[in-house]
Amino acid sequence: MAAIHNRITAIVPAYNEAGSIGETVRSLKEQTLPFAEIIVVDDCSTDGTGEVAERAGARVLRPPRNTQSKAGAQNFALTFVTTDLCIAIDADTMLAPDAVERIVAAMEDPSISAACGFVLPRHVSSIWERGRYIEYLFAFSYYKPVQDLVGKPMISSGCFSIYRTDVLRALGGWSTRTMAEDMDLTWTLLAEGHGVRFVPEAVCYPIEPHDWNFLGKQLRRWSHGFLQNVRLHWKTLARVPYLGSFVSIGLWDATVSSVTYLVLIPLACVFIHPIFLLGYVIDLPLIAVPVLVTAVQRGEIGRALVSLPCFALIRLVNAVYMLKAIWWELIMDRPLLVYEKGH
Amino acid sequence: MAGLPGTGLGGLFYALLTVFVAVREGYLTYCQRSNAARRSLALRMFVFVVLIAGVFGLEGYLVTRVIKSFNEGFASSQISERHEYGAIPTQVTGPAGESAPVPVLQPQPDTRPEPMFQPAFDPVPEAIIPALALTPFIFLAIVLGAVQVLRFFVLRRA
Fold it and tell me: Are B9 and A315 a contacting pair at CB < 8 A?
């Protein structure tokens, strides 16, 4: 592990993140495996983000004008990276103290070009945070490990991922063509034959939506970003074993489930029989088992039990945003072009 | 996937994939091409799937019981006059085997009070549980089949 000491640069894109950037930089400085450099890209913030980051000990870069997206800010920083590994971290994300040490271990394998960690909300108090907590526990303890076992994690999460700098540069950095630059980069890497890993021991804690406004902007970006990537990569996906199946299943669940939750179940309840209300909870065992087992291991069983009903609610909200995204992206052919972080 | 609705088809797909991966890891272990970390993860995921299957079985059993009891309650509230006055004999014979006139029971006016509760819904179709269990498998086969067809055409063009 000592050999990779001082081989890693942290890239933290930030736009008006004065409230969280200090904690993020401090969590990076307290890692068991130190960074060679922590670069914060102050993307023309108006709230003093750069000053807070500088005081916390980061090197702050300021592009001449706002880059319009997270990917743009990350690319701006990429030109200043001199190490062979770089880690992308969101400005509102804190890392567990050993997260970098654990995620770097995956890069010892030369066939691996990117790796991502386990994501959990930092605060779990509002309905939306609780719903997201269950979503993350479920996805990162059930879907992602299976994807990793077949060597095709579907997304190397943008809030905390490590990359080989030369591979990243060869691919042109993070693409700005979609609203989900992490998904775009992961699918491009897999299509090019690069290895991607999921490292569940490397845990990060982003701030998740605590109010409707923040949640709406995030879901809008995610749902449009997913569809934009499917449109962009569909031929590539067909060529990559497993990944095509993961995305097809995800697309089915996103579209058919949305219609089912919002239209078919209510209609069936009204016109056929109220027993169809079971449709809203029929898959609860599927969600509850991995969530509760992981929560027990983390000592968070009470939090998970209280949060489970919130998952049912956030799923309905997800469905609304997904149907809207399908309408605008696929039917009206009016893609989302403006990147809004939400806070 | 976080931010996307639905887990039904995805959940089933990943469960089946987990079983496949567990079998594959078993084979790789036999060939000495697996490692402890992969085996441990595959085992953990397999235990998840076994637990999920068990809880789903329990859920199916409970839902079936609820539906049956609902339907029985529905049936008992629909007592016909025929049930009310007992079975009507079809033939009456004497000690020597001679036929006797069949007594005709005249329905009596129903003097019972109106039931306090009328069932609000029709009985639940009993086929709903097998249908709910089978449908995801059919859809999954369709989706995965479509992916393979697409894959065939894309690879052929390439």
Answer: no
